[in-house]
Amino acid sequence: GKAPVITVDGPGGSGKGTITQMLARRLGWHLLDSGALYRLTALAATRQGVALDNEAGLVLVASGLDVSFEPTPPGEPARVILAGEDVTAEIRTETCGENASKVAVLQAVRDALLQRQRDFRVLPGLVADGRDMGTVVFPDAPVKIFLTASAEERAQRRYNQLKDAGVNVNIAALLDEIRVRDERDINRSAAPLKPADDAQVIDSTGLSIEEVLGRCMAAAGQA
Ligand code: C5P
Question: Ligand 1: distance of its center to the CA of 202 in Å?
Fold first, then answer.
């Protein structure tokens, strides 16, 4: 049989990154950060001079991605290595996220990344973080979670993260960016952001990380 998988989908800033890292560690399972693949496609394209609306060019970039995810100590995100270069910080910028959401609207780009994502499904199991993990990439997942939070709360969390990292930002501008990205992810025709019919929706607005993790572990108990 196939290795078990828990899908965690939802909008940016819903806490998915932190929660899926913690969930994967608790369970001792692998982690797929599918957003990183879209971010890497956008970054590699920019570096290779491929325009973000050049579908055929982007397909070549996506299928040719030379990427590895290297483990780090607990609490730290995996190191992301693109063709031998550490791009962990570079792919986390707002610009890269924005560019990722532009290449992600293209069906051919999504198709080019599909098998690479499915290859992460190996024993003892996989926690898959993204927008379409439960709807498209792993439709047969035994446990599907849709993690959400209000746009205001997500902007506040992003603001706190950036402030802690010493980055000076404007919270109203962050809220605008979040709304633009939500809009693009929800309204695209290729794999739009939405809960799978059989997903458990968890709204993390006003909940602590520990509370959200507890609810996800409870859901994971059914895997
Ligand atoms: O989750 P993250 O912010 O890293 O994702 C960046 C962008 O990549 C998202 O805004 C979305 O447009 C795209 N994405 C996607 N499908 C996924 C993961 C991310 O379309 N499974």
Answer: 19
Q: Please tell me the pTM assigned to this model.
A: 0.94
185 lines ligand 1 (CB under 6 A): yes
How many residues are given for the chain?
Answer: 223
Output the CA 219–ligand 1 centroid distance in Å. Answer: 23
Q: What is the pLDDT of residues 30-89, one digit of tens each?
A: 999 999 999 999 999 999 999 999 999 999 999 999 999 998 888 788 999 999 999 999
Which letter, b or e, does each residue of 105-136 get, where b requires 16 or more Cβ atoms within 10 Å of its Cβ?
Answer: bbeebbebbeeebeebbeeebbbbbbbbbbbb
- Distance from Cα 101 to the centre of ligand 1, integer Å: 6
Ligand 1: which atom is nearest the Cα of residue 12?
3
